[in-house]
Each structure stands twice: as structure tokens, then as C-alpha cells.
Design a protein that fits this description.
Two copies of one chain form a homodimer. By secondary structure, the first copy, chain A, is mainly alpha-helical. Helices cover 59% and strands 5% of the residues of chain A. Chain A has a two-stranded antiparallel sheet with strand order 1-2. In chain A, strand 1 and strand 2 form a beta hairpin. Chains A and B meet through helix 1, helix 2, helix 3, helix 4 and helix 6 of A and helix 1, helix 2, helix 3, helix 4 and helix 6 of B. Chain A binds a DNA duplex through helix 5.
Chain lengths: 188, 188
DNA sequence: CTTTATTTATAAGGCGGCTAACTATCAGGA
DNA sequence: TCCTGATAGTTAGCCGCCTTATAAATAAAG
């Protein structure tokens, strides 16, 4: 249901202590990193509890969100390939999710007459009703989760996290062992 | 290897638009929430790539971190129960992790002579070497991930995320549908 | 028509969570 | 002493979600 995370983060002095043994450890960066991981997991834990109370999972919820018709011209998916792309997972994963959603009567697969390789995925009316029943509580929960922050703090948080995301994306493809370390033999 | 997440976040106007349909949706809170989820996942993705390059997983890494001897008096675990507690997972989960770690020669289980129900878990010297080989790169990676932020921004981020974590913890046990909604019939 | 690319689905596998049930042990009390 | 209850760890069975590799149908381009 959730992911293995530290319950209590090490105190800052502890990080400073450890940075003597490991000069690459920057206490402030490390602390921000751990807070990020933990806050993300705590928030996901709360969301999962909400989902579980409605007999759904985060994956199925996201797929249905992506399938919902939106007024504001936001991205909407209709095929498994689009879903996989929007969610950054493999198509096989989406097939599995759609299988269970279809079994439970939440989505319908229909062959596309124009391109017969493609399937079009539609939310059933049952799913529409379900989502409209669950979404107000979902949004209230998000509001509550962020309720300790002022509007300004929420914006600051968004800004800082965007920076982190961009950095993470830039680090994703290339290898990890820092600059100018080409092959220092830690390939255990 | 990672979790299903939105690749591209909806634009802010899109959230404003949606907030007309769902009055409970607060665009700024929702945006911060999504940035948090996404940044967390992106960061975890990068870390997982690093772990995978060394044939390890995040769970096994965390267990070994908890087992390492630390100088600064930080929390260290020696029994499965302590590990489960520190990591907030069930003991059965820890048993599974320890099984694979033991199979790969990273930990040793020894019965506690004082209380024969208990096992004491120790890192092998192989694991010690492994961790000392991997940790510098690990910490460098964290430093890089947070490298887009100034020291002040890192501290601000830690502070804001702490607020979010605390709020999430306070929301964890109680139910989710907001205040004064006792039983409005969305128990689909 | 043939080749190549694309879309979906399937199969097999792995990780990492969970609960429930079981064994062994410890500790307290009648 | 023996029963009882709590605790530590393992086991068994389950599920969610992810992967890669493969297959089958179709499309598109030469």
C-alpha cells in the first residue's frame, strides 16, 4: 500500500556528523531530500487511504482521471498508448489496469473503426458517477493537506519543487556518479 | 521500478477552469500537491536508477542504512522488529528483505542468547564495503538533485515540507471527507 | 506485394507491500 | 508447577504495479 520510508528523519547534527565521514554529504541538501521523500510518501499514504475507502487504487484513479472529459482543453486520453504516454508507464501496465477497470465495469473498450489496431477507451456512466462522487472529497483532502501553508507558501513550494523536478529530469538519462569521476571503480 | 505519475502537470488555468466544476478544488493547493507528488517520484526514479546500477533496491538499501553503525548516536537497528518500526512496514516485509539480503551475503542473522525469541542482524563485511563504495556516489547524487536550489531555498523547502508532513500525519488516522460531512452517502 | 512500423495484448517474472496463522519463547500469577 | 497472555520471527497466500519479450493484427510506405 505504501513504500518503505524512514519514520523519523535523522536530526541535523547527525547529518553534520555523518558529513565528516562522507565529505560528499551536504547536510542541507540531504535534509531537503529526505523531507521531500517523506512528505511525498506521507501524502501518498493519506491519498491511498482515501482511495481504499472507496475500493479503488491510485493507478486506477489516475487512469480514470485521464479518461474524464474536461472542459478546459486539458489533455485527455482515449487510447491505451496515450494513457501509457501520459502516465509514463509501459503499455503492458496500462493493459493490466484497463483489464481490472473493465472487469469492474468502469471502462469500455471499443475498436476504432478508422484504425483497427487501436482501441478507444471510454468511461462508463458508472465510472462517471463514481468519479463525481469521489472527486469533491479528493479535492477537499488536497486542500486540507496543503492547508498548513499560506497561498504564498504554496506558490513557493511549487516553484522550488519545479526546480527539483527539472534537475531530476536532467539527471535521469546520464549516469549518476557526479562530474569528472569517469570510472572510479565502484561498480560493485 | 517506479510509480505511476503524470508526466506533464495540467496548466494552472486548467485547474482554475476545473475549480468551477468542483468548488472544492483550490488551484494553488492542488498545484503544490501535484508538484510534490511529481518531484518525489522523479527524485525516486533517479535514485532507483542509481541503485539498479549497483544491483540493489531502495528497500534493501534502506535496511542496510539502518543497520550501519553510526558515530553520531543516530538511531540504529539490530532486530527485525526495530527495522520494521523504523521503516514503518510490517515485520513480514522485513523478513522478506532480510531473506534476500542474507541470500546475497549482505546480512547475518544471529540468535540473541539473552532472549531466544529475538534475532540480531548484522551487516557482513561485504555489505560494509559495498555501502562504503556506494555511499559517496549516493550523497553526490543527492547534492546534485538539490543543486538547483540555494542553501536558503533548501532550508525553505525543508521547512515547508515539514509542515506538509505534519498535516499529512494528522490526517492519517481520521477519515477524509472534510469537516462536518458526517455521512453524505458517497460510500460507493 | 513486401517490408517496416505501430498498436494492443499476452506471458513470465520481480519487487515489495499486506494479513493471518503458526512456532517458540518469555513473563506473570494461581 | 502449570496455565495464560504477550511478544519475536517466520511462513503462506495474496495483491498491485511495474518490467521485458513476444505475438498477432493492422497500417503505411516502397
Amino acid at each position: 500500500m505504501q513504500r518503505l520510508v524512514l519514520k523519523d528523519l535523522p536530526r541535523y547534527e547527525c547529518l553534520v556528523e555523518a558529513s565528516r565521514q562522507f565529505p560528499d554529504l551536504q547536510p542541507a541538501a540531504c535534509e531537503a531530500f529526505m523531507h521531500l521523500i517523506r512528505a511525498g510518501e506521507e501524502v501518498i499514504r493519506v491519498m491511498n487511504a482515501h482511495f481504499a475507502a472507496h475500493n479503488i487504487t491510485q493507478g486506477r484513479f489516475l487512469v480514470m482521471m485521464l479518461l474524464m472529459e474536461k472542459e478546459g482543453g486539458c489533455p485527455t486520453a482515449t487510447t491505451p498508448a496515450e494513457l501509457a504516454d501520459l502516465a509514463s508507464v509501459s503499455r503492458a501496465t496500462i493493459t493490466g489496469l484497463l483489464d481490472t477497470l473493465e472487469r469492474d465495469g468502469f471502462v469500455r473498450r471499443e475498436p476504432d473503426p478508422a484504425d483497427r489496431r487501436q482501441m478507444s477507451i471510454y468511461l462508463t456512466s458508472k465510472a462517471q458517477e463514481f468519479m463525481h462522487g469521489i472527486l469533491p472529497g479528493h479535492f477537499r483532502l488536497i486542500t486540507q493537506l496543503m492547508g498548513n501553508l499560506s497561498s504564498g507558501e504554496q506558490q513557493t513550494l511549487s516553484r522550488l519543487l519545479t526546480k527539483v523536478s527539472m534537475q531530476a529530469l536532467s539527471l535521469a538519462p546520464g549516469e549518476t556518479d557526479g562530474p569528472a569521476v569517469s570510472g572510479s571503480g565502484e561498480t560493485v
